[in-house]
Amino acid sequence: MGILSEKFPVCDTDQESRRDAEMTELLTATQMRAVEQAAIDYGEVTGLELMECAGRGVVEAILEWRPELVTAPHRAVVLCGPGNNGGDGFVVARLLKQRGWEVEVFLYGDEDKLPPDAAENARRWRELGAIHSLATRQDRVEADHLSDASRVLLIDALFGIGLTRPLPLCVIGFAEFSERWQYDQNMLGSVSIDVPSGLCADSGKRLDSAFVASLTVTFHSEKTGHHLSNAFEYCGDLTCVDIGISEHINVDGAKIVKMTGTPLNALRKTRLGSHKYSHGHAFVLSGSQGKGGAGRLAARGALRIGAGLVTVGCPDDAVIENAARLDAVMLSPIKDVDGLQTELRARKVTAVCIGPGFGLGARLRESLQTILKDGRGAHPTRHGASLCVVLDADALTEYRDDPEMLFAMLYEGCVMTPHEGEFGRLFPDILAKLKDPAIRGPAFSKVDATREAAKRAGCVVLFKGADTVIAHPDGRCSINSAHYQRSAPWLATAGSGDVLAGFITGLLARGFDPMSAAQTAAWLHVECALKFGPGLIAEDIPEQLPAVFRDLGV
């Protein structure tokens, strides 16, 4: 897909990760419209054929989702909008009618002003049934009467990816009715075409009211908004169907990807000529006595993910405590910044993690300044690249009063891993834009926020959450979505972020470039949680990696 560009080559391992990492491209609403238009312009397909394929795909997805609907006709209410999403709805209505369903169609908009392809499908539907117009309604239309009928399937084909403003008043009653599938036995469900009407297709934010689908059927590619914010609460089950557009059609604009697999070749350790020094040395700076738990979690994560050696650097008073809890992980007493610099060089460290449980204050600032100054090139790694540094937790909070001072020290070998609170301390203006209520679309998204942050900081930023977004200063971006089939709410536990920081550090130590390390670590982090299941605590996460690797064939 070209999303992993050659702008930041670090080592041969990175080249391998580019070859076999599994990613799918996500599209914004503008990009999706451009893809459709390009397919039409290239003569691959006509607009009418696209609409027919979309409608047929929706019906097939519904019947696959609810197989019991295949054997007997049921009742459907189809809400069509004024654009091509409404045209898809007319196709769905016609195909269900042909299967013997009782179908009722409502149109929001003027039928005489429908786009040509949608108008043709409206005409075809009229040969089978009526269209109830909502065009002249300025008031709220209640949908309560639908629940008095036989079991009904509500089809939302109102706006899809095209909505840029709140829902009109006359359809809000239908939006509220769409929620009833969760408890009303008279509803078979609510199906939204492309995106539940009322959601911004780019940001996943709700523009005031929105439909609540039990199934969302999208086309060609999932949209960014499906995986951001709390869109999953409105989309229900998400499925993407092919509508006949070739994969080779590209669009302008920075691409956004969703990682669906991990770079297997890069994760494998070769059998011949391989030893611990071949896989890098990760160094985790830890807190003082009684505060070393977070650092130990990060160190365990770095070791499990394959770093050849891992050392925890800590104050003298914490050595005994850490020694009692660590075996394969080495220990290094750090008295001052001179000792830190000596250790990093003597141990040929390739990646450092600083922040988890470290503690705020002068010691943190001096340590971070030493590492970043050394890492800019004075201390090259075995690959000739700058020392890679992961900044997490306290390392992000320490500069909350002067983030620009931190940004001035950072470089492309760094990875920042803020959760929302830490992000807001470093980028308060960006977070304020992200938190603004969405009034019009496309709304400012977490992708926009993370890209801005990465550009400002000059390094990779991993903005944590169930909708983790990872961005590079050059605009590359990916979403690691823990929603739908990959929902892993058990990751909301103390210390899970420390393990993630350790995963990234371990991969950096092995030679992954910062973007690939962050993407791979985030994906494996969720896989470990899915492997363990409910009851997960942070200590369990690294211990799932062997089973995850076996499943992957690493």
SSE layout:
Layout: H1 12-20, E1 23-26, H2 29-41, H3 47-65, E2 75-80, H4 84-98, E3 102-107, H5 116-126, E4 131-133, E5 152-157, H6 169-178, E6 187-193, E7 215-219, H7 232-235, E8 237-241, E9 256-259, H8 264-267, E10 281-285, H9 293-304, E11 309-314, H10 319-325, E12 330-333, H11 337-346, E13 351-354, H12 362-378, E14 388-391, H13 394-397, H14 403-409, E15 414-416, H15 420-426, H16 428-435, H17 446-457, E16 460-463, E17 467-471, E18 477-481, H18 496-510, H19 514-532, H20 540-543, H21 545-552
Parallel strand pairs: 2-3, 2-5, 3-4, 5-6, 6-7, 7-8, 9-18, 10-11, 10-13, 11-12, 13-14, 14-15, 15-16
Antiparallel strand pairs: 1-9, 16-17, 17-18
Helix pairs in contact: 3-4, 4-5, 9-18, 15-16, 16-17, 18-19
Written overview of the protein:
The protein is built from 21 helices and 18 strands. The chain folds into two domains: 28-252, Rossmann fold (3-Layer(aba) Sandwich), CATH 3.40.50.10260; 273-431 and 440-552, Ribokinase (UDP-N-acetylmuramoyl-L-alanine:D-glutamate ligase, 3-Layer(aba) Sandwich). 39% of the residues lie in helices and 16% in strands. β10, α9 and β11 (309-314) form a beta-alpha-beta unit. It has 554 residues and is an alpha/beta fold. The strands form two sheets. Strands 1-9-18-17-16-15-14-13-10-11-12 form an eleven-stranded mixed sheet, with helices on both faces. Strands 4-3-2-5-6-7-8 form a seven-stranded parallel sheet.
| The level-1 CATH class of the largest domain | Alpha Beta
The rough form would be described as elongated
Which fold name corresponds to the CATH topology of the largest domain? UDP-N-acetylmuramoyl-L-alanine:D-glutamate ligase
Report the strand count: 18
What CATH architecture label of the largest domain applies? 3-Layer(aba) Sandwich
Secondary structural class: alpha/beta
- Radius of gyration from the alpha-carbon trace, in angstroms: 26 Å
